[in-house]
Amino acid sequence: MATKILALKNFVHSPFKVLFKQPISFNNNNLKCISTSPLCCVNFFNKLPAEKLWKSVTSVSNAGAKKGRGKGAGRIRIRDLNRGQMIGVGKVNMLWPGLSAPVIRGRELLKQQRLPDDPERMEKLIKLRDSMTKFRRLKLSPIERGWSGVRLPGRSLGPPDPVAGEEFTGFETKVLQLRSLLIMKGTLGRTRNYQAMVVTGNGQGLAGFGLGRAKEATAALRKAKNRAGKKLMHFDIYNNHTVYHDFYTAFGKTKIFVQKQNEGYGLMVHRAIKEICQAIGIKDLRAKVEGSNNLQHLVKAFFIGLLQQRSHQQLAEEKKLHLVEFRDENEFYPMVVASPSTVRTKEEIPKDETLDFIQYVMNDKVILKKKKFPPFYQTMPHYELYLKKFERFRNHEKIRLNLKVEYGETKSFLSDKYPDEKVEKDD
Amino acid sequence: MSLLKIVRINTKHIFTKHNETNTLYISNRKLSIVPSVYDQENPAPKFFSSGIQVLLKRLTRPEFSKVFRKRTNNNTAVLKTPVYKFLTDEELNIEKEKANTNADRLLQMPPVVKLHEQIKDVLSKDPALVGYDNATYMFTDITFGVANEHRIIVQRNPDGTLESCDRDTRKRLNQIYFPLQGRKIREPKVFSEPDKFNGLLEGEKYEYILDRACVQYEPDERKYQEITSITYQHIDLHSKFNLLRSTRHFGPMVFYLTWHQSMDRLMLELVQSSVVREAVLLAALRQAVHNDLSNGEDYDALVSEILPRPIQLTKPEILSEEDIALDTKCTDLIDKYINTSSSMKSQQALALQGFREYYQQVVDLSRGLKKAHEYRGEWVRGKPEGAGWRYYENGNVYFGFWRRGQRHGYGKMWYADGTFYVGYWNMSKKEGLGMFVQVNGNRYEGNWHHDKKNGIGRFYHLHTGQLQEGCWQDNVCVMSKMSDIEIRQFCYFPSEYPIPPETLLESKKILEDSEFWLKQQIGNIDNKLKICIDKM
Q1: What's the rounded Cα separation, in Å, for the pair B472 and B481?
Q2: Where is the chain membrane-spanning (chain B) (predicted)?
Q3: Which of A82, A212, B312, B411 is the S-S candidate for A224 at Cβ 3.0 to 4.6 Å?
Q4: Is residue A408 less than 8 Å (CB to CB) from chain B?
Q5: Residue A329 contacts B, CB cutoff 8 Å
Q6: Burial code of B27-36, b = ≥16 C-beta within 10 A, e = fewer?
Q7: ipTM of the complex
């Protein structure tokens, strides 16, 4: 189609030539070709402007647009056919002094002349036009990327705007959710609203979350961010890396079981909880979500759980018992982390009281631990064969390493005896 | 048979390899350290005697934070989650006891014994076997449950003699059949190559060297004793004793230094860090090992005094009279030791002089503090009378007027629990007008009698922002009127709603009609209070 339009363009550029074709042909000796009927070269190509022509190609019906046609990869895009073309340069490679070349070059007056044709010109033009049609996705650097590509959830928005001259230094905002809501209005009918949920924090115990609604996504994000900045909460972080104790928390149908972890464990949690933890400054945590995974409920449940934590001193006071910490890396040395003002004796403790720490802080909730089944291949007959076959090699790697430490290469006691026979090549 | 042959050839090959490295001589030329081993007299009877063991354990100065320090995680990717328990006092004590035994296990000292002797016993000679084979045959009893040192391992030589194996072969075969965790069949390069060993010494990785040597060698091996000897001497030269304190290697090191009569640098370090008691223990250790000090009985007597005392992990700031007496005795004894038996007399004497000066300051301070607990002020007939300060044993402080040794008249009292009273006293009891401030800032202003709130007063609930005016009887408020203070809105926990103004008609009248009110001396309480508070 592009070539057709090009032809049309040539025609449009030189209509005179076409119109005066007849008189020129009169001069020809062959008079048999004379046609008496008037030539009328008018069709929709030269009747309509380019804009309307393109619209006829690219437009999608109203019903189709509602279904989402004419979007994404298969979409036809408008191409600028003038791109890459210059006045004075065309199919026939002519030199026009004053138009496509200077009139005087050096001392010489340039003359109008035909240069040898450039066979690649058309190909270049077509390539240039094709490059305009390709659909390109926006790419982000891995650091800026969110949970999924360029989609906003998981992406950073920077600190909230200053409130009354107070700047939020060291704060970082993360988008947790951005979605469009449709609402009905009396006058306008169905309208689209955007809703955003973000969390902001300084990574040192201060954090807050906010919800914003607006007609535009950016406005919703801005509102949410600034609201989050105004609703900051402070959380104590145990040893600057984790929570004080395991806890169970719920909001609506969302249930979260949070487990405290030792240093170096990392954040093995839902991605939204991970962002919250990073905003607060929690580094090691495990959390299991049960029930509904409605994101807003998830966020609220987690914040409530964090706020309802009790410090070790409080726990000791509640129980009126010493709270003692045993760490594997310290050979289980009993570290008293909190002592109450008065300690109960063994006789004062009722029989049915929960003394197990985990049970007490989890409020008698128990995490469901599903039975682990062996991988499918372990039940198949070939697995046994494999085990039998590779049993004899099971220690080889260690031996190779030891030999390399010893001799600098893998060799056996026989290699001294038979130096020509090399068993295997070193990597 | 063929299998045995292969084994034999194999082991032979390893032996020849091993024997080459065995001749390598470890020496630290740069520092001119010459290793010395226990090859003359057997140190074991002395090392294992209970008296010396107690001294060595005490000199280790076990600090639990270092004994139970975080060790490398045993090839686990992530540290395990800590366990928490609610414990009563008794359970906590049981756990602490367990921790003590655990600490004993962690601090168990590697034994110090004499160098082993080569085994030479021919079991039989069979001339018929001469020339049967040109290889040596090894026979190992691999019965389960036999200790490695008692296992029968013999060899049949090509000339037909059957004899016990030498030590190296025994160790190797034991390791092949019953491998000990961490021990390598071939000597680690750390010990076989002097460069690597010296690198560790320069990096002060003493504990690592000693731990590794314990695993790799037996305590009666020459190589073990040489390695430990070099390490101990290196520590001694650089006075890095603190790196080994609270570890199981400190005892053997002190024993080594004492055995070789070179513990004076350690003595100097002890005096310099002002632990004279341990210095006495060290001298007692020398006496127990060599019995070469002039007044041996004094040491024994003092050691029996020192041992029941708790270990001093930090320098004490306040000393009791008993401590002072004991430390003085220790200092005198150390002084004698330095003059008679020390080889670093001048340095140690200087250090001791420094210690004495420091100690005198601490003594003055603690005695001065004790004196300050007593009364400072005006006296009449041997008893405080007039204005004066008094520091009580329990931490209370009083400043005010006295009469016949009792608080009497206007005075202020700062209690140890953080509360404060200012007002009038009568024979050490609160009587008259006074103000009492609690720890949380709430305060009572009003009349007192018999050390209790009695009479008209007002109580400020500053955390909620209310004022309670009324009558008290023996610390109990019997009738009062609550009203808001102006600052209610700015309190920590302001009450939700303000108290409405004067809903009860004639409230003042009701108060005034009550008999408690009538009992009170009529007067302008506001004015009196103002004067009382202004005096402060």
Answers
A1: 12
A2: none
A3: A212
A4: no
A5: yes
A6: ebeeeebebb
A7: 0.71
